[in-house]
Every structure is written in C-alpha cells, then in structure tokens.
Amino acid sequence: xxxxxxxxxxxxxxxxxxxxxxxxxxxxxxxxxxxxxxxxxxxxxxxxxxxxxxxxxxxxxxxxxxxxxxxxxxxxxxxxxxxxxxxxxxxxxxxxxxxxxxxxxxxxxxxxxxxxxxxxxxxxxxxxxxxxxxxxxxxxxxxxxxxxxxxxxxxxxxxxxxxxxxxxxxxxxxxxxxxxxxxxxxxxxxxxxxxxxxxxxxxxxxxxxxxxxxxxxxxxxxxxxxxxxxxxxxxxxxxxxxxxxxxxxxxxxxxxxxxxxxxxxxxxxxxxxxxxxxxxxxxxxxxxxxxxxxxxxxxxxxxxxxxxxxxxxxxxxxxxxxxxxxxxxxxxxxxxxxxxxxxxxxxxxxxxxxxxxxxxxxxxxxxxxxxxxxxxxxxxxxxxxxxxxxxxxxxxxxxxxxxxxxxxxxxxxxxxxxxxxxxxxxxxxxxxxxxxxxxxxxxxxxxxxxxxxxxxxxxxxxxxxxxxxxxxxxxxxxxxxxxxxxxxxxxxxxxxxxxxxxxxxxxxxxxxxxxxxxxxxxxxxxxxxxxxxxxxxxxxxxxxxxxxxxxxxxxxxxxxxxxxxxxxxxxxxxxxxxxxxxxxxxxxxxxxxxxxxxxxxxxxxxxxxxxxxxxxxxxxxxxxxxxxxxxxxx
Length: 634
Description:
The chain has 634 residues and is α/β, with parallel strands linked by helices. Helix content is 48%, strand content 11%. The strands form five sheets. It has a six-stranded parallel beta sheet. Strands 15-14-13-16-17-18 form a six-stranded parallel beta sheet, sandwiched between helices. It starts with a strand and ends with a helix.
C-alpha cells in the first residue's frame, strides 16, 4: 500500500498502528490502561442503545422497545423514543459548540491593547461590524471589539428575532429555513426548546423532533460556531497558509514536551506565547532540557497549527499515545473530547495532566483554573510546571516513534479565495470572489468538493476511512476540504503535503500546481465547519445556483460525538447532502430513518446517507457529485 513519489511517501495506517502497538508495550510495562483494552471490555455494545430504542427520560422506566413491548409505560413507541434521543443528542452538541463560541466572545470582550489578548485582525472586526450595521467610523478598535462582543453575546439569549449570521446565506436558503420554521432564534433558546420538547409528555412525533434537530443544529453552525470562528480570527489572526508537521514524531526527546488538547484557543494561544518566551526557554535549559516543544491534539491543535505553525501530534484516538511516549512533561487540556483516562494514565508516567476549565474537571488531574483575567500568569505557571517536571522523566520509558509528515495548513475562506485567484488564466480577480474555483468546477478540471469532517471512532479502524476515502476522492479530481480530527488524519498520512499532488487526477493535480496547494485543504477546527458553510454560500451567490445544486457533499466517516450530530444537522439544513460512516442510533425507527434520509429533502433540499461500508460510502459520494454535475449541465 505504500505510495512513493520521488522522496515523498505517505505514512500508512499500518505504520501508525505498528507505532501504537510499540507504545502499548510501554503501557503494559507500567500497568497502564488504553482505549484498545476498554473497547474489548465494552464489546458487544448494547443493541437497544445502538438502535436508539431505550428511554430513560422519566423515572417510570427505563423502558426499552421490543416486539413483546412495543410501547413504553407512557405509550411512546419506537419512533418517538428514537426521535427524542436524536434531538437530545443534537442539543448536547449544539450547546457544546455554542458554549465554545461564547467563551471566545467573552475573551473578545476582555481584549485590551495592554492586556494578554489583543485584536490581531482589526480589518475583519470592522467588516463584521459593518455587516451587523454597527457604526465603525472614528471608533477606537478596542471600543468596537467590546461593543461587538456584547452584541455577539446577545445572540445567545435575545428575546426576539433570529440569528444575525443567517443573512450570509443566499436568499433562497434563508427562505427555505423560514418556510420550514427552522430559522434559529436565540442560540440558548434552541437548546432549551430541544430539552423541553424531549421532556416526558411533550413531543413524540418524529417530524416535529427532526425539525427541531435541524433548528438546534443551525443555532450551532450559523450561530455559536460562527461566533467562535469569526471572533477567534479577530483575536488571534485569520489563518493563512503556514507550514507545519504532523504525527507523534513532532515530539522532541531532548526538549520539555507540552501537549495542548481540547478545543478553546484562548488557553493554548497563551501557553504557546509563554513557551516561546526566552525566560521560559532559559528555565527549561536550567532543568536539563534543550528547549520547549509545544504540540497539539484534537481541535486545540488545529487552532494553533493554522495560526502559529505548532505541530500536530495527533487526533482524538491518539491522545493517550502522547503520554505513552514517556516524553510528555504536561498534557494541558481545556474542554471537549478529553479522555478521563488521561488521569490514571499520566500517573503511570511522570506526566502532569493539567485541567484548566470548570466545565471539564477530571479526577487524577492538577487543576489550574484558567480565565481571561489571569490568562498570562496561569499560562506561565503551566509552562513553568512542565519545565520543572522534565527532571522526573524516566529515560527507560521514553520512545517517540520516528514518524512525521509535512503539512501546509490554515486555509481560511479568505486564504482560500486568495490562493485560488492564481489558478485561472484570466487577470487575478481583485474583488476576491470564488469565481476561479467555480471556473475549475464548471470546466471539469475539478469534479467537485467533499467537506470531510469529524472524529475518530473505534467502530471504524481509526483514520482508515478518512485516509482511504481522501486518496480515492483526489484521484477522481475531487478536492477535499477538511477540519477537526479528519484534517489531522490527512496531515498525519501526508495528504496535506503539497507533494501529495501526484496522487491526484490530472485536473486536480494541475490546480494544486498552479495554486501551490495540497489536494486536501485544512480549514481548521470543528467550529470552523462554519467557514465551509460561508464558502458554499459564496459559491452559490457567485454562480447563481442554489447551494443544493453545487457538486459538493459533506462526510463524517468516523464521527463519534454529540457535536458531530449537531454539525451534520446544520450541514444538511444548509442544503448539502451528508454521508455518515457510523449510524446515528436511529436504526430502531423506520420513520426516523425515512425522515433523515429522505423526508427533510422537502424542507432543505438535502438529506443524509448512512453507509458503514467505507468503500461504498465513497462511491455514493462520487456518484452524488456526478449526478449534481449532470443536473446543472456541466
């Protein structure tokens, strides 16, 4: 399976697994647990849970649906139970992503020219202010930042109206949302409404539950996540292409290794700032190290990779591996997707497991509470703690796999438009539109695009689905835009190295050469899927097509979290067909299955496809893209 092109070679899943197995041997020596072992202990999974047909939302139960007992004690059938569970799952994801966005708005509110947080992209702040009808003339940029932060925070709880960001969508899409009654109102209201609807004795009609699931999803993607993305850019800089490296080999045996993990860049930005501080580097040297290496896991990693070029150690299911190297002085986490297992695991090594958020407190961790007001001193304390821990390392346990790939990351929408301007032979489009990209698509040089997103899941051999599907797509001249753990899978394999252009079909290869881009484009963290929504909105406006007509699909082949269901709902509701490689626990209801894979098309012109055979899933996406091309006559 190895692919050689000159000096360039992809890292295979087999090679990554061999490295993991070697790390697990170290773990066995010190009596450490690992997810691979815990999966065996949890298999087979509860079939009632997997089909979505168990209900524990009141204390008369729990009830579960069987042929002998087709209704719960209250009389709710499988369709109502599955629908309620699906909406509850969505609400969890929408709340989580939106709370991340809220934290960023609070950070923006605390921005100060003399403080820890500055406004790094004032132009973007002014653009958003004008979009929201806020007067910018003659205003101090920090006064404007505080005003915009307050307005954004009002989006979470305002009593009237719908989300401000919806105006970015084409008018046709806005009308679809309005007619289907799925325009999100205040972000928190949609989460609260979802929890109200799923309370005992409220909604049990699948159609109503699916409608609210789409609405809660949109409150995330066109509400909280968009706040998170846009205001992170204002604070920390709008990403532009930057070179970095990925996979466990980015850790350095001679340095203090700090791994940042989670999702909120407010913490990691500060940790990176202090890890670069000459005083801290001198301190690390005084402890016997040669310097400080910061690397990342999960979306926090994506955030600092695309703005600072900080290397990516791995994605979701690689988080234990960084500790198993025996060379991690501190794994510093904020919120979401953090294994509670990191506590007991770190105790088997010298690693400090540092939790920082009141929202993500875990046993066996050192809790250093991080907030905007004390950001600088807490970040410094964290870096200092890691440096002091270097001398506690056990050299006989240190093994860092010699495995890393180059990656070019940081393709924000603004950056993407800029690099693609150079592709067409016409004059560079000074207005910065998506027309060059459209030209590539209509001429057939690029067949279409797949937005590949989401987590890893032990139900799918980790990273395989992402990597194998990406290879097949780019060979078929389909460009891939990726975010989250999917993006890190691509980076670890080498698919974000510009040299990977040789794996492409002739058309996409030409585009990669002309634009000097890799065939898989890193668009950021999971909240940054909102960037993809703005991209398709712009493509639709520039082409005069509806979003649902564009040869673009979404895909989450290894998803696992509530956030992923929320994302899927807003991607579908935006008009993009979405393909899942893991069943979203709805198989126990034929009605729910029908609504999600077909019925919602009447409202939003898109729907889900669920296919656990990854090869078939990829073929179905390519087929759908070709169908869309044929339908618009290109």
